[in-house]
């Protein structure tokens, strides 16, 4: 058991070091390259194997998720594993119901394959896309609100609002780029019901993450691990850029609001991202 603990701590420390030394590449270069490739795919400027290559998309997404994975890793115990497992199951279940019935997100379908598809309807890689959206929103609210976030009612409202802001950026960009499409939608091709669905998903997230993670340990790690929200930085860069190219100015404005939250939390610092210094991390 002691040997396993030492091995785990060594792996976590190495992962911290890897992410800290490559912050700018992960949080800025990868999303900019990804945005350029997706825009070229949508415009028909590239063909196979680059055009909407699902494995390139999954690889790039996984790389941008590394800061979140490294940040959460030291906190991952049995309760966290149970909570995350339930959240993964929920993501598959709600997405499958959504594709088959149109509830709760509205009638939609995937227009490209984002890797292998479960029952030909939902990407097997869905948790790679879904979990960071809600995890990052939860973490940002905890960091920005500080002591106010001790109250679950405050956390719940804040996380719901943040998840909605994130999806106001994501869905219009994803529709524009051709990831999926809705059968009718007044907001850049996205129906209002989609956002009501995210209220449900954000609520489930808060209760599961509250159960799975000790708040004191989570806050200590979040405050001392400078790169823990870099995944949200890459999200703003990627989807903010895509929305800007398509002229989706409301989503661009919301992306800037999220960037403002990261600035307030002292997490959106391009100079810091590019320093290559490990920063203050624990492991």
UniProtKB/TrEMBL annotation:
Q: Please report the name of this protein according to its UniProt entry.
A: Carotene biosynthesis associated membrane protein
* Transmembrane portions of the chain: 24-46, 52-73, 80-105, 117-141, 153-183, 195-213, 233-259
InterPro entries tied to this protein: BABR_hydratase, CruF, CruF-like
Q: Which Pfam families match?
A: Caroten_synth (PF04240)
Species of provenance = Halococcus morrhuae DSM 1307
Per UniProt, the keywords (alphabetical) are: Membrane, Transmembrane, Transmembrane helix
């Amino acid at each position: 058991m002691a040997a396993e603990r030492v091995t785990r701590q060594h792996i976590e420390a190495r992962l911290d070091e890897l992410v800290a030394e490559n912050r700018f590449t992960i949080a800025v270069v990868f999303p900019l390259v990804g945005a350029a490739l997706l825009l070229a795919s949508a415009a028909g400027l590239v063909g196979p194997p680059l055009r909407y290559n699902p494995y390139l998309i999954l690889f790039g997404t996984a790389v941008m998720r590394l800061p979140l994975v490294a940040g959460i890793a030291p906190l991952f115990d049995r309760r966290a594993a149970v909570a995350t497992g339930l959240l993964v199951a929920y993501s598959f279940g709600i997405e499958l119901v959504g594709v088959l019935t149109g509830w709760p997100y509205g009638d939609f379908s995937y227009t490209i394959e984002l890797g292998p598809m479960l029952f030909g309807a939902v990407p097997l890689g869905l948790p790679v896309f879904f979990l960071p959206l809600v995890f990052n929103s939860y973490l940002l609210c905890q960091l920005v609100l500080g002591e106010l976030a001790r109250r679950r009612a405050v956390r719940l409202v804040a996380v719901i609002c943040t998840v909605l802001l994130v999806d106001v950026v994501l869905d219009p960009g994803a529709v524009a780029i051709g990831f999926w499409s809705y059968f009718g939608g007044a907001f850049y091709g996205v129906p209002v019901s989609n956002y009501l669905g995210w209220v449900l998903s954000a609520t489930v997230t808060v209760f599961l993450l509250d159960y799975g993670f000790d708040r004191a340990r989570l806050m200590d790690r979040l405050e001392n691990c400078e790169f823990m929200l870099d995944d949200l930085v890459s999200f703003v860069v990627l989807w903010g850029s895509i929305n800007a190219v398509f002229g989706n100015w409301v989503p661009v404005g919301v992306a800037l609001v999220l960037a403002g939250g990261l600035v307030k939390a002292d997490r959106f610092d391009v100079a810091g991202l590019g320093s290559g210094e490990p920063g203050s991390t624990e492991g």
